[in-house]
Amino acid sequence: MNPMEQIKNSMLKGLTPKGIVKKMMGNNPIFNNLVEMADKGDTKGVETFARNLLKQKGLDYDTEVKNFKNKVGIN
Questions:
Q1: Do 23 and 32 contact (CB within 8 A), yes or no?
Q2: Banded pLDDT at 2 (limits 50, 70, 90)
Q3: What are the DSSP calls for 51-65, one per residue?
Q4: Please, which residues have CB within 8 angstroms of residue 10's CB and are 6 or more apart in sequence?
Q5: How many distinct helices (H) and strands (E) make up the chain?
Q6: ∠ CA 3-7-10 to the nearest 5 degrees?
Q7: In angstroms, rounded to a whole number, what is the distance separating the alpha carbons of residues 53 and 7?
């Protein structure tokens, strides 16, 4: 079954998109912490997480956000 069919079936079973992602990620404490920050509206915490992750990968957060916004047409 392809991933889109799995998501569709999960939604038909009543799972929310957030629930689907949590199920896919399993019991990952880092991911669970990130979801908890997002649930609480801690945008600074989520941004710090993203900045650190991109820095570890040798990427610049501001550049990547700018590129993403350009791709999806957000100016």
A1: no
A2: confident
A3: HHHHHHTT--HHHHH
A4: 19, 20, 23
A5: 5, 0
A6: 135
A7: 26
Q: pLDDT of 5-60, one tens digit each?
A: 877 888 888 888 778 777 777 888 888 898 899 999 999 999 999 999 999 999 99
Contact 45, 52 (CB under 8 A): no
In which residue are the tokens 């649930």 written?
Answer: 39
41: DSSP letter: T
Residue 47 CB neighbours (<10 A): 13
Between the CA atoms of 12, 15, 16 and 19, what dihedral angle is there, to the nearest 10 degrees?
-150
